[in-house]
Amino acid sequence: MQSIAESMESIDESVKKLLSGHGKDIPLFKVFMPESVMEPLRKVLLSGYVGEGPRVAEFERQLAPWFNNDNILALNNGTASLQLALRLANVGHGDEVISTAMTCTATNEPIMAMGAKIVWADINPWTGNIDPEDVARKITPKTKAIMCVHWGGYPCDLDELNAIAAEHGIKLIEDACHAFSSTYHGKPIGSHSDFACFSFQAIKQMTTVDGGALVCKSNADCERGRLLRWYGIDRTSKRKDLRCEADIVEYGYKFHMNDMTAVIGLEQLKYVAENIEKHQAHAARYNEAFKNLKAVRPLRYEDERTSVYWLYTVRVKNRQKFMEHMKEASVTVSQVHARNDSHRMFKDFMTDLPGVDEFTSEQVSIPVGWWVTEEDLAHVINAVEEYDRYWCTRIQETKKPPRKLEKKTACQPN
Ligand SMILES: Cc1ncc(COP(=O)(O)O)c(C=O)c1O
User: Is residue 195 within 8 Å of 172, Cβ to Cβ?
Assistant: First the structure.
């Protein structure tokens, strides 16, 4: 039998293998974890208080300026924040939620968990974001909420979506799990709509290992959410018995953050702005380098919105070939999310989505994050340009008129 030390060693080995290209390739994602987290983490771990406590409250306080909003609930993951938002929007059995198929399944599974029906709206094939015009077409008397996702960190058309929500008296829920600190019309995501949901899982702009935040427009929603994140229990109420809660009015969940993860978040907040700046600077270099390419085209972003570029997505001709080419060049690339309507669990909601068809057949993301060095950047640009040249040459060749063959030769079998 393996000793504990041996089995820990084999776990370390398997983790190394899990890392992309065994550490040789330029990764698409990387976990940012500063050494400085160790001391505060150690303190909490040995403090005798590791559950939800003062560090969670402090984390929420320090998050407020990032969202320009202090109605914040720190939670144990982003998926929980989406489910809690749906609950606060009173989405239940038989209701409809208009959503996008171009996302992580974590956007849409909570809709099913609430017993509601998903109604897919199409997307803009040059941003990956939900199309407000199609959303408006899909509203019915059963619609309770609209769910939008800021693909890669680029904000959706929030004015248009909020106007539709207001007109029909329904809620707009932003899945902002890619978009921590992106801005729309000069204000951060988290300050525009009824609900914005964030994720702090391992590979996001900042991580608490796992974690999330729900940011609410209304203080009343936030206070109801505070109860629902912990079984509906009012943790501030006076109790006759230390452990026995008073009356619980409505059922809740175990969705709260704990002090261990919050203290990691507090440390991460010291670095996140600098890391995001690097994502944005790298994206600007790609935008410039790729602006005239024919086979690899950046997405089309408007001014007055900033993306934090959790992803740098391009649309490429012959994606399979491109992915093979980049792999050969030791650059990790991926589609990141498969269109959700391709999953059998969503089969009841099928509909035509031409924008999704167009986007999903060409989209792929390349490394853009804080870990990408100057040398890596030049290497990625070079590999992309090489692919573009290859593709353009092939197109030229296929356009050439076929060589004139003498009749005799042409009629002969090969
Ligand atoms: C768009 C989107 N929504 C939701 C989630 C779920 O977040 P979490 O993993 O923190 O539950 C993710 C996670 O990666 C995501 O990318």
Answer: yes
| pTM of the predicted structure, to 2 decimals | 0.93
Q: Which residue has the tokens 């990387």?
A: 30
Residue 412, pLDDT score: 40
What does CATH list as the number for 273-399? 3.90.1150.10
Give the count of beta carbons closer than 10 Å to the beta carbon of residue 350.
11
* DSSP state letter for 401: P
Reported as a single tens digit per residue, the pLDDT across 344-387 is 999 999 999 999 999 999 999 999 999 999 999 999 999 999 99
Count CA atoms closer than 13 A to 219's CA, side-chain side: 1
The per-residue pLDDT for range 131-166, each reduced to its tens digit, is 999 999 999 999 999 999 999 999 999 999 999 999
Domain extents in the chain: 35-268, 273-399
> How far is CA 230 from each of CA 200, 217, 349, rounded to the nearest angstrom?
19, 20, 32
Give the separation between CA 3 and CA 8, rounded to whole angstroms: 9
| CATH code linked to domain 35-268 | 3.40.640.10
Protein residue closest via CA to atom 7 of ligand 1? 78
297 CB-contact burial (10 Å; exposed 0-12 / middle 13-18 / buried 19+):
middle
If you take atom 10 of ligand 1, which residue's CA is the nearest one? Answer: 78
Question: How close is the Cα of 95 to the center of ligand 1, in Å?
Answer: 23
Token pair belonging to 172: 């707009």
Instruction: Give residues (CB < 6 A) around ligand 1.
Output: 77-79, 103-104, 106-107, 149, 175, 177-178, 199, 201, 212
